[in-house]
Amino acid sequence: MGKTIAKVQGILFLILTIGGFMDPNFLGMHHTMIHRVVHLLTAGLGLYLGFAGTEDNARKFNLGGGVVYLLLVLLGFLAPGLLASIIGHPGPVTSADLMRDNIVHILLMIIFFIGAMRRPVVATTTAR
Questions:
Q1: From CA 15, how far away is CA 17, in angstroms rounded?
Q2: How far apart are CA 9 and CA 44, in angstroms?
Q3: Are the beta carbons of 11 and 39 closer than 8 angstroms?
Q4: CA distance 63 to 22
Q5: CA distances for 8 relative to 32, 76, 99, 105, 119, angstroms
Q6: Are 30 and 24 a contacting pair, CB within 8 Å?
Q7: If we measure between CA atoms, which residue out of 13, 34, 10 comes closest to residue 24?
Q8: For the chain: N or C, fewer Cβ within 10 A?
Q9: How confident is the model at residue 107, as a pLDDT?
């Protein structure tokens, strides 16, 4: 399941990257150059681990991504100015200004954590 979620995340981040390059306000988000580069790197890592990586490494990618996006969600609501400076967004902002970014970050966080928590069922055999 971790590899499947890594593939899905890779595709989602690729869509976000392409959309962000085509329109900096794609999905109402604030796609700065830093934002797009991070999305592109995440897409590449997700696609690599989803198609060529191990299940364990894909799970670790999902867990790490879930933690990163949990922190982004917290910053988006509690310290929007700090989050805006991290993603390269100019000027003072409020959490309302970053609401669409926050919603997308929440959705991505949930998907990452789903991929991290699902462990494959391993059949065990007993010696006779």
A1: 5
A2: 10
A3: no
A4: 30
A5: 23, 24, 23, 15, 17
A6: yes
A7: 34
A8: C
A9: 95
Q: 3-state class of 119 per DSSP?
A: coil
- Residues 12-58 pLDDT 10s: 999 999 999 999 889 888 888 988 999 999 999 999 999 999 999 99
Per-domain residue ranges of the chain: 2-117
- To which residue do tokens 């990618």 refer? 61
3-state secondary structure of 65: helix
Contact 22, 52 (CB under 8 A): no
Contact 2, 116 (CB under 8 A): yes
Q: Tell me the pLDDT tens digit for each residue of 55-98.
A: 999 999 999 999 999 999 999 999 999 988 888 888 788 888 88
Residues 6+ apart with CB under 8 A from 18: none
Instruction: Read off the tokens for 123.
Output: 């059949």
Q: How far apart are CA 43 and CA 11, in angstroms?
A: 6
